[in-house]
Amino acid sequence: MLLKELLHAIPVTDYRGSLETEVSSLCLDSRKAVEGSAFVAVRGHQTDGHLFVGKAIELGASVVVVEELPEELDEKVVYVVVGDSAYALGVMASTFYGNPSSKLKLVGVTGTNGKTTVATLLFNLFSKLGFHVGLLSTVQNQIGDRVVEATHTTPDPISLNSLLKDMVEDGCDYCFMEVSSHAVVQQRIAGLKFAGGIFTNITHDHLDFHGTFANYIKAKKKFFDDLDRYAFALTNIDDKNGLVMLQNTFAHKKTYGLHQMADFKAKILESHFDGMLLQVDGQEVWVKLVGDFNAYNLLAVYGAAILLEQETMKVLMALSEISGAEGRFETMKSSTGVVAIVDYAHTPDAVENVLETIGDLRKPGQQILTVLGCGGDRDKTKRPEMAEVAARLSDKVVLTSDNPRTEDPGTIIREMEVGIPSDKRKNVFSITDRREAIRAAFHLAQPGDVILVAGKGHEKYQDVNGVKNHFDDKEELIKIFNEHN
User: If you write DSSP's letter for every residue of 175-234 in order, what string do you get?
Assistant: First the structure.
């Protein structure tokens, strides 16, 4: 593709060389530059791509897109100066891959909790309705039945548009994707055309990246601000920031909720560990998910399906047959009657939602035991809060490692312990080894008790000092259950 075609929708402030240059590929990582590449120098959270311009040229890049020109210019290279190279990369990637997001219906899901479940449920629902569908999620990316490994909640713009192009070529009618706040700020979704956006909720998370809660809200809101008038914007009206998301959007504004007046309304009629009976817009439907948070997730999915012009009864029938995302309130039961739940909950609010749901479902005499850790190199302020929630809503708590990354696991646990109220300390145990912590919770449990293993959910690894060692919470529980058959 000619460089001038790639730049047609981008404000260029200056350039050196010929815009008639042929571009063979785009790259964000200088190490992936090859002969004829256009390297886009993006200023990241940890590194600045401008430092690697020389490396990209050395490997064959013939075009470099920057926010400021290097002091020394190579006469064989075309230099393009833009105001925001991250934005330029998004738009260029979309153009390079033939604007794939305009050739299917792309729906984005954003919020602190529920993104993966909502996106996955939409994928499962529309597949059940007979459509060929794509999924971009934290757990995995899918093109129909084909699974593509996911490394980020929202991929970089080049990977993202490449995946969307593959979906279009494979005949996908829809794609449902998680849109993280990082992705919005970092312009990873720049240049994409969305058919709709869904807001789940917003609570304390990612303040290590955004700095303040106000900035976090602003990042989520920008996704809706950028939707066009042909799209829909569907928000959770029961969330106190739900309507904030709709303030400046040109999209069709719609709401869903369990408590306030909304365009799409639901009520929980019955709830059990294996599912719940919902009344959705006046119709009763049994679903395989449980808890208020999942009632919201299902309602968001239902509302989006109706806004995508699907028939109400077909949608409700399909919703009664589908399951949620891996590692989201996944339940298993031992032969001794101990119930174990694996959930990705890794924020104070998510832990509270899951534990309140378990509390509502348990029978008199059933204890709740929670295994909980906090990730290293992430927002430290939520550590004592998560521990406090766990101690308040559980009968016993085992604090342990999550993904310590480059931090000392013992230090993380001590920072969590600060949040434990003094009257709860006798029921809180600290075991650094996660495998041993899960085993300890099982041995503390009596028949009929409920163990929540929170924080890692679908993850099949534990990140310790940059090494991802195999570790699967579900696998560990199954081993323990089998030993005690």
Answer: EEEE--HHHHHTTTTTT---SEEEE----S--HHHHSSHHHHHHHHHHHHHT--TTSEEE
